[in-house]
TrEMBL record:
SMART domains: DnaJ
An individual GO BP term: cristae formation
Residue numbers spanned by region Disordered: 1-20
Organism per entry: Cyanidiococcus yangmingshanensis
GO cellular component, one term: mitochondrion
Protein name: DnaJ (Hsp40), sub C, member 11
Boundaries of every J domain copy: 30-98
Gene that encodes the chain: DNAJC11_2
Length: 123
């Protein structure tokens, strides 16, 4: 079985190929694709998606070493997406400036959106 056709032991018919498509289909909304959410999703929807996906793709649920490796990659992406989409400032910066804005936010440890906006888009 090739890597792209590997089926995870999730109890559902999702495949690695479907997950890869979701991760690459809309690069400007990468984290939303990982979580299978709309950019308009509420905080409750983000949390519910995280809980469902993190349980579904938890590496400890996989017996096969290859499936465990793939599940670890997916679990890491899910966790990273949740950390951004569940945090109001990070989500606002991500929505406006993407990953570059998040890197700036981490590097400068800015605590307000107006500070990010003033630095990345000076008037």
């Amino acid at each position: 079985m090739s890597r792209d056709q590997h089926t995870f032991d999730t109890g559902e018919d999702e495949t690695k190929e479907q997950i890869d498509y979701a991760n690459n289909a809309y690069p400007e909304f990468h984290y939303y694709a990982v979580m299978n959410l709309s950019p308009a999703a509420s905080r409750e929807e983000v949390r519910a998606a995280y809980l469902r996906l993190s349980q579904l793709y938890h590496p400890d649920r996989q017996q096969d070493p290859e499936a465990k490796r793939h599940a670890t990659e997916l679990f890491t992406r899910i966790r990273e997406a949740y950390e951004v989409l569940s945090h109001p400032l990070k989500r606002q910066v991500y929505d406006e400036y993407g990953l570059e804005g998040l890197r700036f936010l981490e590097a400068t440890q800015v605590t307000s959106y107006s500070a990010v906006q003033g630095t990345l888009c000076p008037s």
